[in-house]
Amino acid sequence: QVQLVESGGGLMQTGGSLRLSCVASGNSASRNCMGWFRQAPGKEREGVASILSGRIITYTASVKGRFTISQDNSKNTLYLQMNSLKPEDTAMYYCAADQSCRQWWSPPHTPSYWGQGTQVTVSS
Protein backbone atom coordinates (compact mmCIF):
# COMPACT_ATOMS: atom_id res chain seq x y z
CA GLN A 1 0.00 0.00 0.00
CA VAL A 2 0.98 3.59 -0.67
CA GLN A 3 -0.25 6.67 1.15
CA LEU A 4 -0.08 10.12 -0.41
CA VAL A 5 -0.84 13.42 1.31
CA GLU A 6 -0.92 16.65 -0.67
CA SER A 7 -0.67 20.21 0.53
CA GLY A 8 -0.01 23.66 -0.88
CA GLY A 9 -3.09 24.54 -2.87
CA GLY A 10 -4.91 27.82 -2.54
CA LEU A 11 -6.15 30.94 -4.25
CA MET A 12 -3.78 32.89 -6.46
CA GLN A 13 -4.05 35.68 -8.99
CA THR A 14 -3.17 35.22 -12.65
CA GLY A 15 0.58 35.23 -13.08
CA GLY A 16 1.27 34.10 -9.55
CA SER A 17 2.99 30.98 -8.25
CA LEU A 18 2.14 28.09 -5.98
CA ARG A 19 4.03 24.99 -4.93
CA LEU A 20 2.24 21.75 -4.25
CA SER A 21 3.79 19.08 -2.06
CA CYS A 22 3.00 15.40 -1.71
CA VAL A 23 4.43 13.27 1.06
CA ALA A 24 4.54 9.60 0.15
CA SER A 25 4.82 6.52 2.34
CA GLY A 26 4.47 2.80 1.86
CA ASN A 27 5.75 0.38 -0.74
CA SER A 28 8.39 2.22 -2.80
CA ALA A 29 8.22 -0.35 -5.59
CA SER A 30 4.62 0.68 -6.20
CA ARG A 31 5.54 4.33 -6.70
CA ASN A 32 8.24 4.08 -9.35
CA CYS A 33 6.21 6.68 -11.22
CA MET A 34 4.82 9.64 -9.35
CA GLY A 35 3.12 12.73 -10.56
CA TRP A 36 0.14 15.01 -10.65
CA PHE A 37 -3.30 14.97 -12.15
CA ARG A 38 -5.92 17.66 -12.15
CA GLN A 39 -9.63 17.81 -12.69
CA ALA A 40 -11.72 20.91 -13.17
CA PRO A 41 -15.50 20.92 -12.71
CA GLY A 42 -17.21 19.50 -15.76
CA LYS A 43 -13.93 18.45 -17.35
CA GLU A 44 -12.11 15.17 -17.69
CA ARG A 45 -9.22 14.29 -15.45
CA GLU A 46 -5.87 14.99 -17.09
CA GLY A 47 -2.29 14.15 -16.37
CA VAL A 48 -0.24 17.23 -15.58
CA ALA A 49 3.27 15.95 -14.93
CA SER A 50 4.98 12.68 -14.14
CA ILE A 51 8.43 11.59 -13.06
CA LEU A 52 9.63 8.03 -13.63
CA SER A 53 12.47 6.49 -11.65
CA GLY A 54 13.30 9.91 -10.35
CA ARG A 55 14.56 11.20 -13.67
CA ILE A 56 12.28 10.80 -16.71
CA ILE A 57 9.93 13.77 -16.68
CA THR A 58 6.89 14.39 -18.82
CA TYR A 59 4.52 17.36 -18.88
CA THR A 60 1.24 17.99 -20.56
CA ALA A 61 1.67 20.62 -23.28
CA SER A 62 -0.35 23.32 -21.55
CA VAL A 63 2.01 23.52 -18.55
CA LYS A 64 5.40 23.12 -20.24
CA GLY A 65 7.68 25.98 -19.34
CA ARG A 66 5.47 27.02 -16.43
CA PHE A 67 5.32 23.99 -14.12
CA THR A 68 8.22 21.99 -12.71
CA ILE A 69 7.94 18.58 -11.09
CA SER A 70 10.63 17.41 -8.70
CA GLN A 71 11.33 14.87 -5.97
CA ASP A 72 13.23 14.97 -2.71
CA ASN A 73 13.84 11.31 -1.94
CA SER A 74 15.34 12.12 1.47
CA LYS A 75 11.93 13.50 2.45
CA ASN A 76 9.80 11.13 0.35
CA THR A 77 8.22 14.25 -1.08
CA LEU A 78 7.05 15.15 -4.56
CA TYR A 79 6.65 18.77 -5.60
CA LEU A 80 4.92 20.69 -8.33
CA GLN A 81 6.14 24.25 -8.73
CA MET A 82 3.53 26.18 -10.66
CA ASN A 83 4.52 29.56 -12.09
CA SER A 84 2.72 31.99 -14.39
CA LEU A 85 -0.59 30.59 -13.29
CA LYS A 86 -3.61 31.05 -15.52
CA PRO A 87 -7.33 30.82 -14.74
CA GLU A 88 -7.47 27.63 -16.81
CA ASP A 89 -5.13 26.01 -14.26
CA THR A 90 -7.98 26.12 -11.75
CA ALA A 91 -8.72 22.55 -10.69
CA MET A 92 -8.41 19.99 -7.96
CA TYR A 93 -4.87 18.65 -8.11
CA TYR A 94 -4.10 15.10 -7.11
CA CYS A 95 -0.80 13.43 -6.35
CA ALA A 96 -0.65 9.89 -7.65
CA ALA A 97 1.68 6.92 -7.82
CA ASP A 98 2.01 3.75 -9.80
CA GLN A 99 4.62 1.35 -11.11
CA SER A 100 4.56 2.96 -14.55
CA CYS A 101 3.48 6.32 -15.93
CA ARG A 102 1.08 4.91 -18.50
CA GLN A 103 -2.02 6.06 -16.64
CA TRP A 104 -0.90 9.67 -16.75
CA TRP A 105 -0.91 9.77 -20.52
CA SER A 106 -3.45 7.13 -21.59
CA PRO A 107 -7.08 6.55 -20.64
CA PRO A 108 -8.62 5.75 -18.22
CA HIS A 109 -6.18 7.88 -16.20
CA THR A 110 -6.54 5.77 -13.07
CA PRO A 111 -3.22 5.25 -11.29
CA SER A 112 -3.15 2.76 -8.46
CA TYR A 113 -2.73 5.28 -5.66
CA TRP A 114 -4.18 8.74 -5.13
CA GLY A 115 -4.00 11.48 -2.56
CA GLN A 116 -7.02 13.34 -1.28
CA GLY A 117 -6.46 16.31 -3.57
CA THR A 118 -5.73 19.97 -3.05
CA GLN A 119 -7.67 22.79 -4.66
CA VAL A 120 -5.93 25.37 -6.84
CA THR A 121 -7.94 28.42 -7.84
CA VAL A 122 -6.52 31.11 -10.11
CA SER A 123 -8.45 34.35 -10.34
CA SER A 124 -8.35 36.57 -13.41
Topology:
Layout: E1 2-7, E2 10-13, E3 18-26, E4 33-39, E5 46-52, E6 56-59, E7 67-72, E8 77-82, E9 91-98, H1 102-105, E10 113-114, E11 118-123
Parallel strand pairs: 2-11
Antiparallel strand pairs: 1-3, 3-8, 4-5, 4-9, 5-6, 7-8, 9-10, 9-11
Short description:
Helix content is 3%, strand content 52%.
| Low-pLDDT ranges | none
Oligomer class: single chain
Give the overall average pLDDT: 96
Order of helices and strands: EEEEEEEEEHEE
User: Between the first and last Cα atoms, what is the distance in angstroms?
Assistant: 40 Å
What is the molecular shape?
Answer: globular
Helical content, roughly?
under 10%
Could you say which structural class the secondary elements and strand pairing correspond to? mainly beta
In terms of DSSP E residues, the strand content is over 45%
- Biggest beta sheet summary: 7 strands, mixed
- Helix count? 1
The radius of gyration over CA amounts to: 13 Å
Number of strands: 11
Structure description:
The strands form 2 sheets. Strands 2, 4, 5, 6, 9, 10 and 11 form a 7-stranded mixed sheet that branches. This protein has a 4-stranded antiparallel sheet with strand order 1-3-8-7, with no helix packed on it. Helix content is 3%, strand content 52%. The chain has 124 residues and is mainly β. It is globular, with a radius of gyration of 13 Å. It has 1 helix and 11 strands; from the N terminus they run E-E-E-E-E-E-E-E-E-H-E-E. The termini are far apart. A hairpin with a 4-residue loop joins strand 7 (67-72) and strand 8. The mean pLDDT is 96.
